[in-house]
Specification:
Elements: H1 16-20, H2 29-32, H3 36-43, H4 49-59, H5 63-74, H6 79-84, H7 92-101, H8 107-116, E1 122-123, H9 124-131, H10 136-142, E2 150-152, E3 159-162, H11 164-177, H12 179-195, H13 199-208, H14 212-221, H15 227-231, H16 233-242, H17 245-249, H18 252-264, H19 268-278, H20 295-312, H21 318-329, H22 337-354, H23 357-373, H24 377-393, H25 397-414, H26 419-435, H27 439-444, H28 449-455, H29 460-478, H30 480-496, H31 500-516, H32 520-530, H33 534-538, H34 547-563, H35 567-584, H36 587-604, H37 607-624, H38 628-632, H39 636-647, H40 655-681, H41 684-693, H42 699-706, H43 710-724, H44 729-738
Antiparallel strand pairs: 1-3, 2-3
Helix pairs in contact: 3-4, 9-12, 11-12, 12-13, 13-14, 13-16, 16-18, 18-19, 18-20, 19-20, 20-21, 20-22, 21-22, 22-23, 22-24, 23-24, 24-25, 24-26, 25-26, 26-29, 29-30, 29-31, 30-31, 31-32, 31-34, 34-35, 34-36, 35-36, 36-37, 37-40, 39-40, 41-43, 42-43, 43-44
Length: 742
């Protein structure tokens, strides 16, 4: 005989002996639940997969509710409406729970279950705290019969959760019968979670308790803007989603956090709009450390203004940097090492952007151990990027590569899926490879950089390095049209996000590319229309402008003056900016200005200054390995460096200089030979195909004009693409035109 017994309480059944002899099998609530596979078998003929997934999420496979849904849907009820009303007070489920479950419990147990329903998970200590009682463990034991509805979270059953449908019914009863009790319970839960360090749950329950001001106070006590390095951006976004939008915009602290989240998504313009509308302009006369109760808010305001300026490429005034430094000095151990690391990062980038590399390095080296001490590998990773950028600017390519690779190794081990990190690494390494003449390696990484810059977080230095490097690489590989397409795309992005300083940098880049292509008149028109004046960059206040902007705009203007034959003006500016770069330790800029000085002196007939500039330039190359600016001036530079080698022949103390100069000449000649080699590699037939391509003809039309088949044209095109190292017809024509092959 087989007997099946269904019961919620089996204490009176003597089944242990039968179970030991394998003559009885116990099926608990967990075994009776429908799995996803079983639900698919039961409902798959009638419902979409997404609907079945929704049913499983709502019911967790609870057979009673699954049967109710299945039966109701069988009566031609709208399934989507049925699922939406599953937790409604008037639903069939509500009636079942009320009649078959809740009403059969003792009043004390009913009250207990309603009290604990306000949290997702609960243990004895939290239940005692909420109820201001000490008997929660006893009541949990009494509720064991509800094993389908009160579920253990872990194996020792010290933590529990209520079935979501059951929990919603309990909460609805509590809202209806005792709303004041509900608010009191939420406030108690908020206090509990705050003391346990769970900021998200603390804020959630204070808001559910109708106390958004208390939730705001929790956010302020937890660090305000500096919750970000402790909790992470994802949890910070969750916290902000809990607040009402109107409440956020009425409060400066929450508005700044909202602005920070927009910055981190790349929406710099929206961040600036929120900050200016709700916080207002920064007044650095107020010192955020003088015992003012609003001092933390003033500090956050200072930090957020600095961050916005860093991302926008705006000037960061001396008094702002001074105030940031004072804030960093006044951080206490209670503030934590991560807070110190964040302050140091902001100061590092602020000084790096201004071109004060010594101070930038100081704060990077101060922030690194702070991040490691606080366990923030993410913060340390970005400081490695900044240290690499500093070394790159100072003309130490090997050290820059060391720091970039340290950052990339941390990313590989801990943040392999972070696309923002991948973008920064790609841009920095591409820029370094381009500067050291590794064009092939650099060009492999550029295809998606402009698109990625629009999709991921980037600050001004990343925009500047990314767009400038990609544009120059496109010019070297594909000619002016391809490079200007990059600039045009960048202008569109900068315009949408109101990045005024980036637009000025792009104007300088545009001018530079036109000069390279010998379009001097057009370059002058572009520069004049922009109202950019080099005199502004000589103003003392403009030392606060991002160095990358100066590094692009100023050389472009000087080069234009040289091409227009205005040598004295160009020389005057070169003297000023060479001295400025030397004083700042900006050896990368110094190399560019020394080479420009040599070219200008040669054209103006000032032989004495040519050799002096070349001597300095060769020394800078010897230390940095940066060859790009020499290559940009070929073939004139080949002749100048060869003359320099001849003049140094008798100087025994200059043997290292001569060796470095010979390396430069070899590389320059190799570059020129590469062009000649391509010319020699192309056959007459391939040159003819290129000429037809330049008219925009299709393969079929080219074949007809050359009296060959389509497959023969495709064969020639494959060979042309390989020899010119290009991937498209447009690139092939651009390269051929630039190298005067057609």
């Amino acid at each position: 005989m087989h007997i099946a017994i269904a019961t919620r309480d089996d204490a009176c059944l003597k089944t242990a002996d039968l179970e030991a002899r394998a003559e009885a099998i116990r099926y608990g609530a967990q075994q009776l639940r429908f799995s996803r596979v079983e639900l698919q078998e039961l409902l798959g003929a009638n419902y979409r997969q997404s609907t079945i997934e929704q049913i499983h999420a709502l019911t967790e496979g609870w057979p009673v509710v699954v049967q109710m849904i299945h039966s109701a849907a069988g009566l031609d009820h709208d399934i989507d409406k049925l699922l939406q009303g599953l937790r409604a007070d008037h639903s069939t489920v509500t009636a079942y729970l009320t009649e078959e479950v809740i009403s059969k419990l003792s009043p004390e147990l009913q009250a207990f279950l309603m009290d604990i329903a306000i949290v997702d998970r609960i243990d004895t200590s939290l239940a005692d705290h909420l109820r201001k009682a000490q008997n929660s463990q006893t009541l949990f034991s009494e509720a064991r019969a509800l094993d389908a509805l009160l579920l253990p979270v872990d194996s020792v059953e010290s933590s529990y959760r209520l079935h979501p449908v059951f929990r919603e019914q309990l909460l609805e009863r509590l809202r209806r019968t005792s709303p004041e009790r509900l608010w009191t319970l939420h406030a108690g839960a908020a206090e509990w979670f705050y003391n346990k360090g769970d900021l998200v749950e603390a804020v959630r329950h204070y808001i559910l308790a109708g106390q958004p001001e208390q939730a705001l106070e929790v956010v302020a006590r937890a660090g305000g803007l500096f919750i970000w390095p402790h909790e992470g951006l994802s949890r910070l976004r969750i916290i902000m989603e809990l607040f009402d939008e109107a409440f956020i915009l009425s409060n400066p602290l929450l508005s700044m956090i909202q602005a920070l989240l927009h910055v981190k998504k790349g929406n710099v313009f929206e961040a600036r709009r929120i900050f200016d509308a709700t916080v207002g302009p920064l007044h650095c006369d107020s010192r955020p450390w003088d015992g003012d109760p609003d001092a933390p808010l003033a500090r956050d305001r200072l930090v957020m203004e600095s961050l916005l300026s860093i991302y926008e490429g705006r000037e960061i005034a001396d008094n702002v940097c001074d105030a940031l430094e004072e804030c960093a000095r006044r951080l206490t151990p209670e503030d934590g090492s991560v807070a110190l690391g964040q302050h140091c990062t902001i100061l590092c980038v602020a000084y790096l952007q201004r071109g004060n590399f010594a101070k930038a390095r100081h704060y990077a080296e101060l922030g690194l151990p702070a991040f490691f001490a606080g366990g923030s590998l993410f913060g340390a990773l970005y400081l490695y990027f900044h240290l690499g950028d500093i070394s790159f600017s100072e003309g130490d390519g090997a050290q820059a590569e060391h720091y970039y690779k340290a950052a990339m190794e941390l990313a590989r081990r801990h943040f392999s899926d972070d696309q923002d990190i991948k973008l920064a690494a790609s841009i920095f390494m591409t820029e370094l490879n381009f500067e050291t003449g590794n064009d092939g390696t650099a060009y492999r990484n550029v295809a998606n950089i402009p698109i990625q810059l629009e999709r991921h977080e980037a600050w001004f230095d990343i925009y500047a390095a990314g767009y400038a490097t990609v544009a120059h690489l496109e010019y070297a590989q594909c000619g002016l049209e391809a490079s200007l397409a990059v600039v045009e795309q960048a202008f569109a992005y900068a315009g949408r996000h109101r990045l005024d300083r980036l637009e000025k940098l792009l104007t300088g880049l545009w001018t530079e590319l036109l000069i390279k292509a010998d379009q001097i008149d057009t370059a002058r028109e572009v520069l004049d229309a922009s109202e950019i004046d080099i005199i502004h960059y000589r103003d003392a206040d403009f030392t606060q402008v991002a160095w990358r902007e100066r590094f692009v705009v100023v050389p472009a203007i000087i080069r234009l003056l040289v091409r227009e034959g205005r040598y004295d003006e160009a020389q005057d500016h070169l003297v000023f900016f060479t001295a400025q770069a030397g004083h700042a330790g900006h050896r990368r800029a110094l190399l560019k200005f020394e080479i420009l000085g040599a070219v200008t002196g040669d054209l103006a007939g000032h032989e004495d200054t040519v050799m002096e500039h070349l001597d300095n330039a060769v020394a800078l190359y010897r230390d940095s390995g940066f060859i790009r600016d020499f290559l940009n001036e070929a073939p004139r530079m080949t002749q100048l460096v060869e003359r320099y080698i001849e003049q140094m022949a008798g100087a025994s103390a200059k043997h290292q200089q001569r060796a470095a100069a010979r390396e430069i000449v070899e590389r320059l000649k190799k570059e020129e030979a590469g062009v000649d080699e391509v010319v020699q590699l192309l056959s007459d037939r391939e040159i003819e195909v290129l000429q037809q391509l330049s008219h925009g003809y299709s393969n079929k039309l080219i074949g007809r004009k050359m009296d060959v088949s389509d497959s023969t044209v495709r064969f020639h095109l494959r060979n042309i693409f390989a020899k010119l190292n290009v991937k498209s017809r447009l690139q092939a024509v651009s390269v051929a035109q630039r190298r005067r092959l057609i």
